[in-house]
Amino acid sequence: MPELPEVETVLRGLRRSGLGRRIDEVHVEHAGVIAGKPVAFAARIEGRSIADIRRKGKVLVAELAGKGTAERVYLVMRLGMTGQVTVQPCAEPLEPHTHVRMRFAGGEKELRFRDVRRFGRLRCLTRKELDELLLSLGPDACQVTEREFLLAMRGRRGAVKSWLMNQQMLAGLGNIYADEALFRARIHPLAQPGRISPPAARRLYRAVQTVLKNAIELQGTSFRDYIDIEGRPGNYLQKLRVYQKTGTPCPRCRSTIRRMVIAGRSSHFCPHCQRRPRQVAAMRGPKKDAGKPGKSSQTFAAG
Ligand SMILES: [Zn+2]
Q1: Cys staple from 82: which of 13, 68, 116, 303, with CB 3.0 to 4.6 Å?
Q2: 58 an active-site residue?
Q3: What is the pTM of this model?
C-alpha cells in the first residue's frame, strides 16, 4: 500500500513530466474510481493545465488552471491499496485495470491511473472543498515539528501503532513505515502514546523522520503493486528491518521477530528490543474477524 515515500516519489515524477502540461482529453474506463459522473469529471479537467502538484500525507493534489480568470480546480488523487499513476506514450498498450487516462496536449503522452483493487479515488474539488479535505488530516509526517508531534501524543491511550497510522493525527504513515519507525525507536506497538516517556517519544519522532527520509531517497518500497510514474519499483524493500519479517532474527539482537494483530492490522516487532510496557492499550478483543492471526498471534483493538 503506497505510503508517504511512495506518494512523494510519484509526486516528484509528476512534477518532472506533467507540470505545465495541458490535459486535452480525459477517458474514464471505470467510473468506480472517480467521484461523480465521468462526463462531468472529464469536462472539469479537459483544457486545463497542471499549474502545481503537491501532497499532504498520502493525498496527491494537482492544481489545474483554466484559461484566463477561470477558477482553478484541484484533482485529488488517492492511490488506496494498489493505485498506480504513470505517464507514458499514448501508443503503449493499456495494461489491465487501467481505469482513467488523461491525454496531454500534443497527443504523444498521457497520464494513466491503474488500480487492481480499486480502493484508490480521483476527484475534482473546488478550493474550498480541497481546504476542508486537507484540514481533516493531521500534519504531514515529514513536515510535522517535534513539538507538534509530542503534543499530539499527549493523553492518547490507544496503541501507538494505531496512533501513528491515524491520518487525522499524522498524515502519511501506513503499516510499513509505522512498524519500521517503532522498531528504530525501540517502542512496543501496544504502548500508549500518552504514557511513552519524553525521551522515547523524541526517539519516535526522529525515527519517523529518518525512516521516511531514507525511504524517499530510495523511491519507496514496492511490496505489491507500487511503481513510480515511469513504472519502476522502489528500492527500500531491502532496507526493511521488521515489516513482514516474522520468524527471522532481529537485525539488532537476533531475537525472533514476532507478529501481532492490532486493530485488524499486522504489526511486526522484536519482543526483546521493543519491550512490552506494564500498561498497554486496552484490549477489546480478541475479535475473530480481525485480520488473520496465526496460532501465535494475539489480537488487540485500537483502544
Ligand atoms: Zn531485537
Answers
A1: 116
A2: yes
A3: 0.91
